[in-house]
Amino acid sequence: MNAFTFERLSRPTEAASAVAARPGAMFLAGGTTLVDLMKVDVLTPDTVVDVRHLGLSSIDVSDHAIAVGAAVTNSQLAWHPAVRERFPVLSQAILSGATTQIRNMATVAGNILQRTRCSYFRDVHASCNRRQPGSGCDALDGFNRGHAVLGVSDHCIATHPSDMCVAMAVLDAEVHTVRADGITRSIPFGEFHKAPGDTPHVEVALAHGELITHVVIPHLAAARRSHYLKVRDRASYEFALASAAVVLDLDGDTIRGARLGLGGVATKPWRAVEAEQILMGHKATDDAFRDAAEIALAGAVAREHNHFKIELAKRTIVRALATARDANL
Amino acid sequence: MSPRVLTVRETVGVRTSLRVNDTTHELSVDSRLTLLDALRDVLGLTGTKKGCDQGACGACTVIIDGQRVLSCLTLAAACEGQHVVTIEGLARSDVLHPMQAAFLHCDGFQCGYCTPGQILSAVCAVQEVHAGVPSHVTPDVRQTVNSTTLTDEEIRERMSGNLCRCAAYPNIVAAVRQVLSAAEAQSAKADANEVRS
User: Fold this and answer.
1) From CA A147, how far away is CA A87, in angstroms rounded?
2) Residue A317 included in any domain
3) β-strands A47-50, A25-28 pairing
4) Is the minimum CB–CB distance between B58 and chain A shorter than 8 Å?
5) How does DSSP assign B76-143, residue by residue?
6) Which of A4, A321, A324, A326 might form a disulfide with A289, Cβ 3.0–4.6 angstroms?
């Protein structure tokens, strides 16, 4: 691990300034991504700024929204009574990821900013356009069983690993930030993460030194009927091969509205908007769900080892929607 | 691909106050030092074990401010002002913590390497159950779980962050169950006493 200067600051703008001032500086929250990747020399910051003591650790519940501080841990969010009651899909998604120890460390902002688990990204001896722009992508013709089929490019097929973010995407969360000069802004979740295209190293919509302060999840009455289904190689402590976050707004057995997000199969937290639209006005039958699933995966592009994910994702969508439909509320 | 050149810089020292098992240590540590290495190599508390050193096995589990976390992914310098509990801090003088006693009684280990992490994790898992919080396998996250109806599947899920290469899992589940049941019995007794008084 490279040597670095460690700083702990107490105000968000101070932390933003400290990182903005140095190209090699990074924010440290729970450390479950940063410390891990520093140990394998994938990330080599010269300055590490601890952002867990900036007063960003509260969950504020109101009638129109739940505002979640950037340094709130994944456990705190998943276990919060208002989150479990209003947004079960979010609580389920978080609880399906990692382990209690890791969820107790990992923060909400850190989860949003976590890096891919692509083994070529994590191996400094491999070629990876995301880690080293222009070096190539060893995953394209390598061991790509866990890689993405949606939002891929010829430069990168790395999967976005987060479960929480898939739920945040369907809930239309807003990411709030502050810069060193005190200027704040709000970024819609769907615009926060970037598909790789020909710049896979550009992962998110943040400027260097721009600090996430909190995430706002607007109230959504329909989200009481929501579900997160994760399919993986092990029953626990494993990343998704395919996952679906769904919200179903029913009028009797007719779909008034639906939201559908996908994880484990895409290069960013994925929202299947066309599939959502096709569901509206239809009866909530398995056949309608299957039609939506076909549309959601219509643009999928598989490589040698991950073709199975296309059918797996479709079945995951159907099962998740059926589970939400059949929930006894 | 061009060879990577690592910048070699001098060690950066950080002064930090580390409170471990109710004792405060004023230390000057390398900024890169993990809490795990600080406990073992600086403070001589070798009960905390280094398994994978990359957040995958749970052998290094400690309790910080009441929450179970991984000391291998925690920087020592970031622990300023927090209270760390390790396996050495669990027993009260010669009296084992109920979870330590349960692991002995249920034979919840073979080689013992993962055991300190298993026990600290289990102590917190029981507290989480008593707090009523759900896990991934809780049928409805709106529910408040309780120890009497908690399934073995729940215990396994809540303990999935601690790997045991000897696969002592059935006995580990039994040990956690024993402590949950004992707490349940104690709580019932306390309730009865309250009714009587």
Assistant:
1) 28
2) yes
3) parallel
4) yes
5) GGGGTT-EEE-GGGTSBTTBPPHHHHHHHHHT--SS-SSHHHHHHHHHHHHHHHHHT---TT-S-TTS
6) A321
Decide if A120 is inside a domain. Answer: no
**pLDDT per position as a tens digit, B60-89:** 999 999 999 999 999 999 999 999 999 999
Q: Which of A15, A35, A50 is the last residue of a domain?
A: A50
Distance CA A198, CA A196 (A): 6
State the Cα torsion B16-B20-B25-B30 to the nearest 10°.
-40
Helix (H) or strand (E) holding B16: strand B13-20
* pLDDT tens by residue, A70-120: 999 999 999 999 999 999 999 999 999 999 999 999 999 999 999 999 999
Contacts of residue B128 in chain A, CB cutoff 8 Å?
100
In a domain, A119, yes or no: no
Write b or e for each residue in A182-205: b if 16 or more Cβ atoms lie within 10 A of its Cβ, otherwise e. eeeeebebbebbbbbeeebeebbe
Examine residue A314 and state whether it is found in any structural domain, yes or no: yes
Q: Does B178 touch chain A (CB under 8 A)?
A: no
Question: Which stretches of chain A score pLDDT less than 70?
Answer: none
Only one residue has tokens 């929202």, namely A271
Q: For residue A294, give the H/E element and its range.
A: helix A286-296
Q: Which residue among B9, B74, B142 places its CB closest to the CB of A3?
A: B9
**Going from the N-terminus, what domains does chain B have, and what CATH number goes with each?**
13-89 (3.10.20.30), 98-192 (1.10.150.120)
Q: Do the Cβ atoms of B174 and B106 come closer than 8 Å?
A: yes
Nearest to A278 by CA among A321, A315, A307: A321
Q: Which of A35, A136, A236 is opposite residue B75, by nearest beta carbon?
A: A35
pLDDT at residue number B1: 45
